[in-house]
Design brief:
Layout lengths: L3 E3 L5 H11 L7 E4 L10 H12 L4 H11 L7 E4 L2 H7 L1 H11 L3 E3 L8 H10 L3 E6 L5 H10 L4 E4 L15 H12 L3 E4 L9
Parallel strand pairs: 1-2, 2-3, 3-4, 4-5, 5-6, 6-7
Helix pairs in contact: 1-3, 3-5, 4-5
Length: about 200
């Protein structure tokens, strides 16, 4: 299980504290969402958290500082979820260097194009980080293979169409879809979106 936290909500200071506390739990890793003004499939809860963080003046550098503060106390992988526009605005080399120094293990960049992904993946790899790539239920298998070529660590399988958030039920064919992608690509698959109950896990 990989919990998701919205960085900067309710404060940057609480982000560092929350990461440290999560590090004591029997979880596989932690996904850290960088606040962004234009939602990328984010449901209302994450949108509200990001809006709060941004209106409070939270910036990328502060989030990275919070991660760096918590990193010595967290043994699990830390993965940043961030928009490509933020990475490109800062500049790929500069952002990757700062992310590595902060202690991130990888990134999920949900809006990066398949054409741009290899260059970012290579930059991350040079710094010892990995780029997890998204695969959706509507992704043809040949495209999934192309996505897997740039992916490192795992593929992030979007279980449902639409936005993030709790759902009462997940698709009936979810298990088969995940098994097919894992078998075809040879990569671990993490499932996201809609998971809200213990039986879903």
């Amino acid at each position: 299980m990989w919990p998701f936290i919205a960085a900067g909500y309710p404060t940057v200071e609480s982000t560092a504290l929350l990461l440290r506390e999560l590090g004591h739990l029997p979880i596989r890793g932690i996904e850290i969402g960088f606040p962004f003004s234009d939602p990328i499939a984010d449901g209302p809860v994450i949108q509200q958290a990001f809006s709060h963080a941004l209106s409070s003046g939270v910036r990328v550098g502060q989030v990275l500082d919070a991660i760096a503060e918590a990193r010595p106390h967290v043994r699990q992988p830390l993965i940043g979820m961030i928009s490509a526009s933020i990475v490109y605005r800062i500049g790929v080399p500069g952002f990757v260097d700062r992310a590595a120094k902060a202690g991130l293990d990888g990134l999920i960049v949900p809006d990066i194009s398949l054409e741009e992904a290899p260059a970012l993946a290579a930059s991350l790899q040079q710094a010892g980080l990995k780029l997890a790539m998204l695969v959706a239920p509507t992704t043809p298998m040949d495209r999934s293979l192309r996505i897997a070529e740039s992916a490192g660590g795992f593929l992030y399988y979007v279980s449902i169409q639409g936005t993030t958030g709790a759902r009462d039920a997940l698709p009936a064919d979810l298990e088969k879809s995940v098994c097919d992608i894992r078998e075809t690509t040879g990569m671990p698959v993490m499932v996201g979106f809609g998971i809200s109950r213990a039986e879903h896990v």
